[in-house]
Design brief:
This protein is of the alpha+beta class and 128 residues long. A six-stranded antiparallel beta barrel has the order 1-2-3-6-5-4. Strand 1 and strand 2 form a beta hairpin. The mean pLDDT is 84.
Length: 128
């Protein structure tokens, strides 16, 4: 079970504003740029991200039903800013991984405490 939606609403209004200031350069954090499915508006969402063999893996701490995940899924692409670099990503895949072996050990342990086992895997866009 992902984190409660009440916490997600608080983070969206308060914590994300602060996190956006560091997420583009701090290890383990990134900013995903995506576009609204209906509005077409650009959004920038701070996320937890790690490099993977196949691209980048995002820990879905609020589950796969969040707006940013649905926007990326619908578009089939996004841009991520991590470690001061913008990287175009494509081909989203939703993974349920109770063992959490896609992320580093200490993160695996923390995600286990809050029972997060959903991840979004995106490949680096070879043309991007």
């Amino acid at each position: 079970m992902p984190l409660p939606s009440r916490l997600a609403r608080f983070n969206k209004r308060v914590t994300n504003r602060v996190a956006r200031r560091v997420a583009g350069w701090m290890p383990g954090l990134a900013i995903v740029t995506h576009f609204g499915r209906v509005s077409g508006r650009e959004y920038r969402t701070p996320v937890i991200v790690f490099r993977a063999d196949e691209g980048y893996v995002f820990a879905l701490t609020y589950g796969s039903g969040t707006d940013w995940v649905e926007n990326v899924w619908a578009a089939g692409r996004c841009t991520v800013r991590t470690r001061r670099r913008n990287i175009a990503l494509v081909s989203p895949r939703l993974l349920v991984n109770p063992d959490r072996e896609l992320v580093p050990g200490v993160v695996r342990w923390i995600l286990g405490i809050v029972n997060v086992d959903e991840f979004l895997l995106l490949a680096v866009d070879p043309g991007g």
